[in-house]
Each structure stands twice: as structure tokens, then as C-alpha cells.
User: Fold this.
Amino acid sequence: VFVANATAAIKLVGEGLRDYCDAIEGRLRYAYHKDAHNSLVGVREFAGAENTRVFGYDSEVDEWLNTPSSTTTSTDSNDITLFAYPGQSNMTGQRHPLHWLKGAKKLPNTYTLLDAAALATTKQLELSWWAPDFTAVSFYKIFGFPELGALIVRKSAAHLLARKKYFAGGTVDGVTIFGGKPSRIRRESIHEQLEEGTLPFHSIIALDHALETHTRLFGSMDRISAHVAALTRYCAAQLHSLTYPGMSQKLCHIYTPHSLFSHNSSLHGGTIALNLYTCTGQPIGYRSVERLADSKGIFVRSGAMCNPGGMATHLGWSPEELEKVFEAGFRCSKPIEVWEGKWTGVVRVSFGAASCRRDVDRLVEFLRRSYLGGEMTVGV
Ligand SMILES: Cc1ncc(COP(=O)(O)O)c(C=O)c1O
Assistant:
């Protein structure tokens, strides 16, 4: 189903399941992993707080899959549980186990939503093996262009989206508007039922060219995956080695080192989340790092990355502390970068198919020169 972006794909699943549950007078239950982008977190509003569970750790998911609790699965045949998580964290690059998708299918009335927006940029999607019911992707994150996304629906789960209340031009084959019970005939195929209004046809045509060009330039996704994994590990090792001269104080605090430094590339994608310390171990504001990098033509992103669960756990924020920092005026768009000695966001370095070793060297040289007083050996 062509949609604008991964967010629209995720929302479509949330709306579809909500309307399905309304139609059969059941409840929608939502279980998701904390490492979710806000686009996935927002689905909780369709289920309601009492029907939502967030897993704080991978072990909680494993436990749930082995011994599901009544708050997230139900044997009432009218209740539906949606289990959602990102294949790869947009904040840290950590990849989450794809066997969860298979595990969840064994639970009663449970369906799965894989947010593959970050994962699909550097990994081949193997949907027949993983078996998610719904998969959300943004094509521009893979190819750079066109601005288009898709929801990939497993046929056995398509009926869940077929009760969507809203209809529009393109989704119906006949409508009556007069009389006591106006009716409508839905179109036959699931994508026709869900693609509302005029499709972004130029983008759909362009997608064909994007696929062809991408293959011509880079070969297979497996090659990209291997290249990006090697580059990311090389970069992480370089960053890890940066130390203030004559001191033991490291420059970088690197998040999720376990998956990042692993040689198993299925555990981590092309993203490194980090923060910087001063020589006395004080936190340096992440925005200031981004600004300085920008001024040197090096583009990193900084902030909480629309990933509130990642921010809470990796940066160590309790819900009470978060309330306080919001009261103090923190906004994602206008951050207080460090509050009571703690970062409120990270610096994120990302690599893709087009990145090369020189990009890593430039970044490392930039950090060395800007913060450690080293000599620049690679042109910035
Ligand atoms: C893991 C993940 N999910 C969802 C999204 C939202 O994607 P989009 O803005 O294309 O809808 C992003 C965006 O960066 C993401 O990284």
C-alpha cells in the first residue's frame, strides 16, 4: 500500500485495527518496545493507556512471548493485540531480534507491526522469513528519493484493515448518500481500499528508477550491509580511542556499545549515538557539537531523536525528572541540552551506502582538533 511515509503506514495500521475492533466490539491491545520512534509510540492512543504495555527491556519481550500476561493478550476472540517495535533503533542503531515476530504469532489474536524505517536503509528485508503482519518503510530513507513510503501487508492479516471506517475517492466502487442507510461498496484489493485519493504517481514511477539506480550503484543490500557494518565499527573504534592528551578522560560516551562493537552485524546498523565530555568529565551540549560540525561541513544530527523511550533509558531519565525538565522549559525543538548534569539528547552519526572511510576520518579529525587540540591531518 503506497503511503506518504513510514509514519502514515503505522497510523494506517493503528486506525485500521481500532476500526476493526469497534466493528466486532472488541478491544485493541497494544504492546510495544520502548526503543520506538514517536510514530510508533503514538499508536498507544488508539488502544488507550489501560490496554497498552511498553517493554522496557528485551528480556521483558522474551518473557512476554513465553508467558504472555493478561494485560497484553486476551483469549477473548474479539480482542486483538498489536505487538510493534522498530527493526533498528533510530536513536542508537541497535537492531532488535526479528525472531520476536515469529514468536508473537504463536500468541492468541496477536499481530505484529515491524517499523522497518531505519532497518531497511542498510538491510535486506526478508519478510517471508520474519513474517510480520505489517511492515512500515520510507523509501526516501533507503534511496534518498522519491518521498514515498509503503505499508506491506501480509495477506492473512489484510482483513484487519478492511473495516476501516473512512473511505475516499479511489477506495470505493459505489456509494449511496440518500436514504436511511447510505451504503458503499469497497474496492476489491486491499491496496485499493487503503490508498486514499490520488496516488503520488510521479513518485511511484520514480521509485522504479530509484531501485534500478541503487542496484546499479551499490549492488545488493547485502553488500551495503557489510560495507556499513565495517564502517560503523571502524568509526566506533576511532571514537572510543579519543582521549584528552595526558589524561585518562575519554572524549566520547558511546551508547549501546555491546551491539555496536559486536562482530555480528545483525545486532547493529549504521548509526552511532554518542555524547562528548570535557577534559574534567563534564557533559558537553549535543547541539553545540552539531553546530560546530555543521560549520565544518560535517553533518550529524543531535537531540532526543523522537525516541522518548531511548532518551529515558539510555540517558537515565525517570518520568518524574522528565516532567521537571519539561516544566523547566525543555522542548525537543528548543532543548536544554544538559540539565542537572544529564544530557537530554545525543549526537547521532549515521552511515549509508554512499559513506566511505574518509567520512569517518574527517569526523574523527574534526573531533580531535576541536576538542582535544590535535593537529588536523585530513582536510575538512
Ligand atoms: C525507526 C523510525 N521509525 C519511524 C520514522 C518516521 O519516518 P517518517 O518520518 O519517514 O514517517 C523514523 C524516522 O526517522 C524512524 O527512524
Observations:
- The pocket of pyridoxal-5'-phosphate is lined by residues 5-7, 37, 39, 86, 90, 115, 117-118, 138, 149 (CB under 6 Å).
- The first strand starts at residue 2 and ends at 3.
